[in-house]
């Protein structure tokens, strides 16, 4: 007597969902444990991403990739020697001066808070304000006492970053040299009926991410140079530190412009305590970001990502919290990749044939 075929059971979607969540949690734990290794890999990947168009152009002109890669490393070696000879000493001197003056700045802030407390009139709510000022000055004392610990921790971070910088050229070389092999291997893993679609989406994502990363590096360098030169002209302390901070802050969408001006305004006020110098510093940064927003970015970012501002802020906050600097840098590329993929999904490109 034959058995009747069993009815097809519904898929266990909840089990798959739980499996995905557990996998993501496992990846997060692994990422935290291997944060320095992942940081080195991401640094190498970004550098390789920025350099690859040069090799592609060389290949289009008939130069083999290995020869173009060797020539590129020779040029980068010359630039590295120049950087280590002239730029690094200037940055080091500026940083040492900043660390030396940091306790003075902290004590000055405490002194100003105490002066405000003494001038506070005895009115309704003054007790609460006094309590807040006492708490603030107590925190300032704690910061002053822990300055040495903070400097030591920063030095440790610099050590790991130097390790990444030394190791990255090796990883970048292999990433660039074996690029085509890796692409072909990944392509072979994709089902043949979906290969053309997924590779097409990959090209769209690659164009968007590559344009953003290369453009953002150019914008950050230009902003850092303009800010440093402007602060040197108006004689604001620690211009190189403020310029580098402004270049790094330009990565942040929307609020980066405001954050970038804070160190320069603080140093201007600390040295001159003049509204005129604060105005000059503010005007200098306003001109820099006007040039950046209306001249540099339209020229550099030829293909806009067209991301929703709210989604952009949420992605930057979420990935910045989980991945630190790399999360902030890669938040917009990841959001753009999700948007492109979601657009194809909505249009039904992933429906079964």
Rg, rounded, reads 26 Å
Q: Which residues sit in consecutive blocks of at least 5 with pLDDT less than 50?
A: 4-10
Strand content: under 5%
Q: Return the structural class.
A: mainly alpha
Order of helices and strands: HHHHHHHHHHHH
Q: Which descriptor suits the 3D outline?
A: globular
Give the number of DSSP strands.
0
Provide mean pLDDT, rounded. 77
Through-space gap between termini:
38 Å
What's the story with the biggest beta sheet?
none
List the total number of helices. 12
Helix content: over 70%
What would your notes on this structure say?
With 353 residues, this protein is an all-alpha fold. It has a domain at 193-353. It contains 12 helices and no strands. α7 packs antiparallel against α8 (239-249), α8 (239-249) packs antiparallel against α9 and α11 (309-323) packs across α12 (325-346). It is globular, with a radius of gyration of 26 Å. Mean pLDDT is 77; it is low at 4-10.
Summarize the structure.
Helices cover 84% and strands 0% of the residues.
Strands, helices and their partners?
Layout (H helix, E strand, L loop, with lengths): L12 H21 L1 H26 L4 H55 L6 H20 L1 H31 L1 H11 L2 H42 L5 H11 L6 H17 L2 H26 L8 H15 L1 H22 L7
Helix pairs in contact: 2-3, 2-5, 3-4, 3-5, 7-8, 7-10, 7-12, 8-9, 9-10, 11-12
